[in-house]
Amino acid sequence: MLTGVGGICDEPFPWQMWKQRGWFHGALVVVSLSARALERLIPGYRNNEQNFDANYSGCFHFHLWRFGEWVDIVVDDYLPMLDAFPLFCKPLGTAGEMWGPLVEKAYAKCKRTFQAIEYGFTLDVLTDLTGAVCEFFTPDIDPPSNLFHILYKSGSCRSLMACWRNNKRLTPAGFNWTDDSG
């Protein structure tokens, strides 16, 4: 179960639903854990200013970090659908929370097409959604000697962090550091 600014995601492992775009949706999950990052990405998020209620205009504004500056991306509310469900990013969390699919549409617009975001890297999209400089560490291959200090300082500075697991190295007894197959 994931908790975020918008509440609790009841899906136990939502990334299992995301086949090829797991890299993008993983970044959305990380961003959803920070009200500050969501407010920067979705102007008016904290006050629920962009909604389907009063003064609804059919368009939504998002700010994406592109080439060293924030760019305002405006998208309409028409999402690619299949059998009455969004074709790509599924809404998760509280009912009717559509910011995920709309952010994905804004990101696709920024990249010019949905096909352009078919594959990618989570750190790249985290930079585009937050404007942050992202770092990548592999603790099993030449980790920095102060890795845990870096993680501690990052957490205390409210940095967004993500981790991945390698199923080939994960065993019932723990993490297998000696297996070079993964």
From TrEMBL:
Which family does the entry's similarity section mention?
Answer: Belongs to the peptidase C2 family.
**What are the residue boundaries of the Calpain catalytic domain, all occurrences included?**
23-137
Residue ranges that the Swiss-Prot or TrEMBL entry lists as coiled coil: none
For this UniProt entry, the molecular function terms from Gene Ontology, in alphabetical order, are: calcium-dependent cysteine-type endopeptidase activity
Q: Name one GO cellular component term.
A: cytoplasm
* InterPro entries referenced in this protein's UniProt entry, alphabetically: Calpain_cysteine_protease, Papain-like_cys_pep_sf, Peptidase_C2_calpain_cat
What the entry lists under Pfam families is as follows: Peptidase_C2
User: What protein am I looking at?
Assistant: Calpain catalytic domain-containing protein
Q: Per the UniProt entry, what are the Gene Ontology biological process annotations, in alphabetical order?
A: proteolysis
- So which domain of life are we looking at? Eukaryota
